[in-house]
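Hey, I was hoping to borrow your eyes for a little while. I'm sending you its amino acid sequence along with the backbone structure tokens. Take your time with it, there's no hurry, and the full record follows here.
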Amino acid sequence: MLDRLRAALSAPVDPAGLIVFRVGFGLLAALSALRVMALGWVEALYVTPTTNFPWIPGLATPSPTVLYGLFWAQVLAGLGLVWGRAPRLCLAAWLLSFGFIELLDKSLYLNHYVLFTLLGLWMMLIPLERLRLSGGAALPAWSLVLLRVQVVTVYLWAGLAKLNADWLLRGEPLTTWLEARAQLPLVGPFLAHDVTALGMSWAGAAYDLSVPWLLLHPRTRPLGVVLVVGFHSAVGLLFPIGVFPALMILSSTLLWSPSWPRRWLGAWTPPPPAPPPWPWPPTAALIAVILGMTLFPGRGLLRGEDVAWTERGHRLAWRVMLIEKTGLVELRVVERSTGRLWRVSPAEGLTALQHKQLRTQPDLIRDYALQIKAQHAAAGRDVAVFAEAWVSLNGRPSQRLLRNDLDLTQPLGALDEAGWILPRETP
């Protein structure tokens, strides 16, 4: 069986489908960067803020000139992928520029940008220089397997995450979101009806858990394609989620037959000599990568807590459209030696978007507390920082999120041991 697996991973695969995916990926990469610049988001999201929440401590936001240079690098790299010359170089340039931008601020995290990055990363492992429509070029099957597993993983975890009481029994957060669109002409009253939100919630869970299998099987593939295009088009019209619908529609083509574009491009004949079985070291490495990408999103389950409340394990887990939170946060800063007290409202030092994310996410609140401590330390003061944080999850009454008697600048291990994030108590 293992020998057959090695042989299957090295079997020749028609490159036509991956060529179309590469072209579409490049177009999305270029258009996404152009969109950010055209809408003025470089200034609003990266230049204007005086505070950022980097994924890597100490990572500073560069000058506007460098920022715009990074976004133009994404545009040029995307167009280079469309062209198909030096694809690895173009992809590396895009990954470095796009990845650096994403590392600048956790408060700007988006699931589809993570998927965008991972798909680009896995494409770097593929022999892209062999993506030619003619000349007998073929790809090893593992190239397609790696990308397919990534797409299926997104759908699988997105569907499993929806199997909870809020989504299936209360229709939240869709009820809240659709009620906000009650004034839309014609469809507004329908969207605001409770049954609509509940029905869409069940349909959304069923869609995520079934559509990858529909797309993989030839007999059900037409139905899967209709569902993908219809679902993501509707979501894109109802909710402002950027390039996510286009990325998911494009990614769905990876689950089709690899030869699907041949009806327009002409027939393809695989190279006659059978490729040698893939060596064991890369086979083991591929299996490790696949296990990692499929199991890592479920790490939040190991804690045995409400991930939607604590958000530990929420990021990088494909928990899509599950949370509607509102919150209120005020920080209390106390000088240890004198007892002198300052009260800090994060709204005064952050952008509206940063504040919206911080007031419901414990790790961002702690990051901000550490920044406040550093500011006071620069002035020669040793301070402790406490938080008054209240949050409402999916329409419930507000309750306290964090213990208000713990100094948030303590090591994270000490805070976890003390239970700094309070459990959700309301039903």
Remarks:
- The chain has two domains: 2-263+276-303, 324-418.
